[in-house]
Amino acid sequence: MTTQPYLKFEQIGMSFRRGQMATEVLRDVNLRIERGEFVSMIGHSGCGKSTLLNILGGLLKSTNGEVFLEGKVVDEPGPDRAIVFQNHSLLPWLTVYGNIAIAVDKVFGGSRGKGKTKAERHDWVMHNLELVQMAQAKDKRPHEVSGGMKQRVGIARALAMQPKVLLMDEPF
Ligand SMILES: Nc1ncnc2c1ncn2[C@@H]1O[C@H](COP(=O)(O)OP(=O)(O)OP(=O)(O)O)[C@@H](O)[C@H]1O
Ligand SMILES: [Mg+2]
Question: Domain 81-168 is in which class?
């Protein structure tokens, strides 16, 4: 038996269609990534980096090929793949704290295997805010902090979810 990689892109192709016009953005992308590996994609603006990331994130469906995470086909978004977007994606009506808590509650709330108590979830939110040095701004809303600070909150939110894959689209 051949060992399967942690993450596998298999023959990924992507075309965007607009009426009769189809624009091919990705063709035959094959990539095997092992657990613990850091992979950076570089390329000129518009070459398809975000598109490939969004396919792995389950936000876009590739027109060809398949992505496998631990042998399972990726076909929808899930908390096992946290994304830090190129443009921040914080919820404007929640505070900095609230933006992380909502993700932590989703992943660790309830009685699922990864469950944490309410007090543990609070500590975990604060721990992750401290990692990005945003604890002192926890009660501010996204519009009250700078662009870089918003991105740091996005990074803290992604880390706090303890995803299998951390997808970062130019977050710095
Ligand atoms: N939803 C869409 N519909 C049509 N075309 C799209 C769509 N999303 C992206 N594209 C096109 O696909 C190509 C790749 O876009 P993508 O956002 O993946 O580039 P990128 O490598 O992330 O660029 P940048 O470095 O500027 O962020 C571009 O030509 C873009 O215009
Ligand atoms: Mg991009």
Answer: alpha beta
